[in-house]
Amino acid sequence: MARGAKRKGASSARPGGRSSGGANARRQQFLTRAARVFDVPEGVAEALMSQGRRQSLRFNPLAGVSRSDFEAEIAPWGEALIPVDWCEGAWHLDLAPGEALPDHLFSSGQAFIQNASSFVPALALDPKPGERILDLCAAPGGKTSHIAALTGNEAEIWANDALPARLPKLNEVLSLLHVRTASVTAHPGQFIDRFLDGPFDRILIDAQCTGEGMFDLRRPVTLRYWSMERVIEYSRLQRKMLMAATKLLKPGGVLVYSTCTLSPEENEASVNHLLSHAPDMLLEPIEIAAPGLIPARTRWDKESFDPSLTMACRVSPSRFMEACFVARLRKDA
Ligand SMILES: C[S@@+](CC[C@H](N)C(=O)[O-])C[C@H]1O[C@@H](n2cnc3c(N)ncnc32)[C@H](O)[C@@H]1O
Asked: Is 141's pLDDT higher than 70?
């Protein structure tokens, strides 16, 4: 048989031993779940998860350039910049192919590109100057830098990420964006109470997750690493991180838990686990007027969650927003 020719009946092998049949089944399994998560028909879920998403731009006030000077500089691109009316100093980018903003805005740290959904967790955290704040899963630093910007670099920020290999990038972003940190560490979030001393006024857990919100079903590689085993593995890790971080939160302090994934096992179920094991943790509403924010689920499969979970929210995917999940909790004072 000629090299590269396929034997009759043989499945087309993929790296890692996964077959295209397996890939199709995986895609279908994901699609069925996505449709159930958003309570829509599968065709609608497929369209929702097959969008090319546009990025957004966040002005960084820590770079020493005034907002008015920055706005004057980006004014020539005015038509391609749509102000994000629920996040100060941010614009959705609607640039034409080949069109770009000047490089120096990014190399000087005046501007940072993020998906607009990433603005929601930092805004929900509502950090204040003078507070002690822990960002448990910080790399590459998008949300840490947003927290620093929101506090005018006047908070004591502890940026942690368990993967030492991701620390150079985290440090690079923090330095580029002029972020002042109290400490940058590489501790496992699930044991953070053994490594850091509390209490913290606010804690962000932008958790390691299956990243389903970033999937684009038009691209076959999108589900390359996805499996239910991974969903369950991460949900276990997330529960442990929530429990450990809560021990470091001061009474009256705020914890925001976010993921960029759809799976209820990693979202509502993780928060529900915390609520049932830490009765002093209570959900609070998220008062952000972002489009596509919908209440989190109170049921999934055979499981019912605490009714207060409707205060947590999901972002329904759209042109500028990736699907994500955000919950804001307060420790009873
Ligand atoms: C969604 S990303 C965080 C993105 C980041 N918050 C931002 O806005 O740029 C999740 C991060 O969790 C880190 N991580 C994975 N396992 C972890 C653990 N056990 N404890 C703490 N961080 C972990 C990963 O290295 C990854 O950088």
From this structure: yes
